[in-house]
Amino acid sequence: MKILGIETSCDETSASIIKGSRIDRTVKLISNIISSSVKIHAKTGGIIPEKAAREQVKFIIPVIQEAFEQAFGSQFDTFPIDAIAVTFGPGLIGSLLVGVETAKTLAYIWNKPIVPVNHLIGHIYANWISTMNHQPSTINFPALALLVSGGHTDLLLMKQHGIFIWLGGTRDDAAGEALDKIGRLLGLSYPAGAMIEQLAMQGNPKAYNFPRPLIDSNDFDFSFSGLKTAVKRFVILRPKAEESLADLCASVQQVIIDVLVKKTLKAAQIYKVKSILLGGGVAANEKLKIELKSSIINNKLSIKFFAPPKNLCTDNAAMIAAAAFYNYKPIPWHKITANPELHFN
Ligand code: KG4
Ligand code: ZN
């Protein structure tokens, strides 16, 4: 079956067509279009919700059109899809409404089933998507999902498709949020995660010993706001030296990786999982992937490690369509409402 995915929870406007096979239960990416208003927000150092939503109103139809054109030639009006999937939360209310109301309208006029999808669960389903260059092997359950994005840092036990148990999450800043806020302190433009990763490659991760909050706590919670405060104090006290920026980025990145890896490994062992799944924008970080993978090997655990291809780590509609395929529960379009505060069911 072919599903049109629509994602507008933050500053991206994305539409994607995926093909799900009911025979071998795989999902293939057919097209994935992403338009981002991030350049506008880079000027202000963070997202201005009203501006994000106004851009999404402008781009939603062209983006959907482009997704159809790439998938089927120019057949936007012949709607050769079987269903529509849309992110209904969490996110910015104005942004969510653009995607949700567009999807509901298309479902009504095209008479197609519509599946509402939790954005956070969508990030985890990016692991199931096959692309031209990436075919994931079978993901066995129970699986442990580490969701690390700009808005969330959560550990989830996934027992089956659609069955999640939330084990813990951040008590304050998300991992990506901490990177973005620290980036701002260091004069980097928003969002700073990818730039911190680049700069960190030239730096020494042991140069500065910042606190590793909750690393040994007896739960699966995280806390990254103290790291931001420690860097702030450091930056105020020390004169800005060009050569220390790479060391600072490497040291900050290492704190976040150390905490994420330690807690993930602990949960994986306690819950005896067969797979570890990474998801969310911070999952694009190569060092995080390398260190998680090697910690599984070093601890001699027979756990398969999965991470989505880079372009499917950050927000995209393909992951929303994939989540809808594996959890196919259409509901009447008029019963779908955007929910900015949505967490896990
Ligand atoms: O999942 P996402 O696109 O949006 C949310 O749902 O929040 O994640 C965006 C976050 C930002 O905080 C960004 O700085 C971070 O992902 N990010 C990275 C990298 N690429 C994006 N963090 C670390 N390393 C990266 N390569
Ligand atoms: Zn996201």
Give a structural overview.
It is a single chain. With 345 residues, the protein is of the alpha/beta class. It contains ten helices and eleven strands. It has a six-stranded mixed β-sheet, sandwiched between helices. The chain is globular and about 60 Å long. The structure holds 5'-O-[(R)-(carboxyoxy)(hydroxy)phosphoryl]adenosine and zinc ion (ZN). The site of zinc ion has 5 residues, from α4.
Average pLDDT, to the nearest integer?
94
What hetero molecules are bound to the protein chains? Answer: 5'-O-[(R)-(carboxyoxy)(hydroxy)phosphoryl]adenosine, zinc ion
Q: Spell out the helices and strands N to C.
A: EEEHHEHEHEEEEHHHHEHEH
Strand order of the largest sheet: 5-4-1-2-3-6
- How much helical structure, as a percent, in the residues? 25-40%
End-to-end C-alpha gap: 26 Å
Q: Main β-sheet, in a few words?
A: 6 strands, mixed
* Number of continuous helical runs: 10
Q: What is the CA-atom radius of gyration, in angstroms?
A: 20 Å
| Shape, principal axes of CA atoms | globular
